[in-house]
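Fold this sequence, please.
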Amino acid sequence: MRLAQRRDLCVNKRLARFYGENGNHQKCIDHLKVVASAGDKDLDELMARYKAKLLSKDDLTKTLRAFQASSNAMKSKDRDDARAYMAAKGIV
């Protein structure tokens, strides 16, 4: 993932936290959906909003499908082989 995209995700996470702490749950959810749709694996906040009935099942489903598509797009055999090689060499 490019650095600019990672920074955008960090900004969206911080905005989600800010809006959530200040009671603006809809804006918080909007930012959490952006982060999850980009493939970020931290879905706890989004699930908490769903359990609190602040997020509809339909919106959750759409977001989780976007998360899965993004996660699948980031997978590759070469990347998995490189991780295995680095782990075997003690690099990671």
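The chain has five helices and no strands. The two ends are 18 Å apart (CA to CA).
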